Amino acid sequence: MSDTVGKTITCKAAIAWAPNEPLSIEDVQVLPPRAHEVRIKVLHTGVCHTDQYTLSGKDPEGAFPSILGHEGAGIVESIGDGVTSVKPGDYVIALYTAECKECKFCRSGKTNLCGKVRETQGKGVMPDGTSRFRARGKDILHFMGTSTFSQYTVLADVSCVAVTDRIGTDKSCLLGCGITTGYGAAVVSAKVEEGSTIAVFGAGCVGLSIIMGAKKNKAGRIIAVDLNDNKEGWARKFGATDFVNPLKIPRNVLLQEYLVNMTDGGCDYTFDCTGNVSVMRAALEACHKGWGESIVIGVAAAGQEITTRPFQLVTGRVWRGCAFGGVKGRTQLPGLVDDYLRGELKVDEFITHRVSMDRLNEAFDVMKQGDCIRCVVDMS
Fold it and tell me: Alcohol dehydrogenase-like N-terminal domain location, by residue (predicted)?
C-alpha cells in the first residue's frame, strides 16, 4: 500500500445521494488522512438497521449525500501526523463510538460515550470540519464517523481499534456494532447477575447478543419476545429459556401484565431492541417492583417520546439506555476478540447471509427478511 500513501485514492463506494433512494455504487475519491486521522481499506462490513433508519429519512441527524455503513473492519493503509495508536498494516475495527481516553466523559469512568469527535461526527464531517470524500465533483459526507460502505475510508484515530489478524474481518466487523451492543448491554451496562430473570424484546442480532451475554452471566430465566415465531429457534440457540409471541397471548391481557404474571412479579432486567416506544413502555412495566431495570437500546424515529405512569418509577423501577453496550471500543473491544478466539463468544453463528459489494442494496432487502440475523458484505 506504500504507493498510495499521501495520495488521493479512487475506489468504489455506495453513496446515499438522497433519502429513500437506492445506494449508488460508483467511483469516489478518498483524500489522504490529515493529522490524527487514519485511512483504512475496508474489507468487510455488516449492514445494520441503523443504516436503513438513516436511509429512510427518519434520522434527525441524517444528511445527504453521504456514505453509510458503521459496522466495518479492514487494514490501515496510511496514517496522518500524530497517530500513535495504529500503524499501516494493522487490522482494525471501525468505532462509531469513539474513545479518546482524555475527555470529560472518558475520564469519568461512568460511561463509554466520548466527547472528542461527537459534534463533528454528527454533522458528517471530520474533526477539522471537512470531508475526505468526493464524487461527481462534490463533497460527500461521512456517516457515524466510519462510512464503511466505501472500499477506503478515513476515520479519526480515536474511532478505530487494532485487533489481532487471527480473527477474519468478516467476523470482526460484526463486533463494530450489533454483537457488541447487545452483549455489552447485558454484561457491561446491566451487569446481569446469576439467577436473574430477563426479557429481551426483539430477537434480531442485538437481541440474540443480549441473550448470549445473559447466558454468559448465568441468568436463571431468559425470555425472548418477538412477533416472528421463526425467531424462537434462534433465541433458544443463543440461550433463551422461554419465547413469547405477543400476538399469541390472550387479547385482553397487556404484554407487560402477561410477563409479570409468568415471572412471579416481573423481570429483574428487560431490554428493548425494537425502537418502538410502545414496546419500551411494556419493557419497563414488565420489570419487578422495587428493583427491576429496563435498558433502552433501540432507536426510535425522530420526535417520538416514551411515556409511563410516574408511579412505575416511584415504586423502584429504573429506566435507562446504553450505546454500543456500554463498551469502550479501544479499551475493551480487543478483549471481546480474545473471547471469540477462545470460543467463549459466538460471532460466526450470527452470519446468515453474504453478498458482494455490487449487491449491497440487496443486503437491505435481505435484512428485512425473517431469516436474516446479519448480512456481511465483501467490499473487495
Answer: 35-162
In the numeric block, the cell 407487560 is attached to: 256
What per-residue string of b and e applies to 308-335 under the rule 16 or more CB within 10 Å gives b? beeebeeeebebebbbbbbbbbbebbbe
How distant, in Å, are the alpha carbons of 182, 199, 331 from that of 207? 6, 10, 24
Q: Can 118 be counted among the known catalytic residues?
A: yes
Does the annotation mark 70 as catalytic? yes
**What is the architecture, at CATH level 2, of domain 9-179+326-378?**
Alpha-Beta Complex (3.90)
* Catalytic residue list contains 173: no
pLDDT tens by residue, 204-255:
999 999 999 999 999 999 999 999 999 999 999 999 999 999 999 999 999 9
What is the tens place of the pLDDT at every residue in 14-25?
A: 999 999 999 999
Catalytic one of 50, 97, 169, 197: 50
Catalytic, out of 36, 132, 288, 374: 374
| Interatomic CA distance for residues 283 and 318, integer angstroms | 11
- Catalytic annotation on 180? no
CATH class of the domain comprising 190-321:
alpha beta
Is 84 one of the annotated active-site residues of the chain? no
50 catalytic? Reply is yes
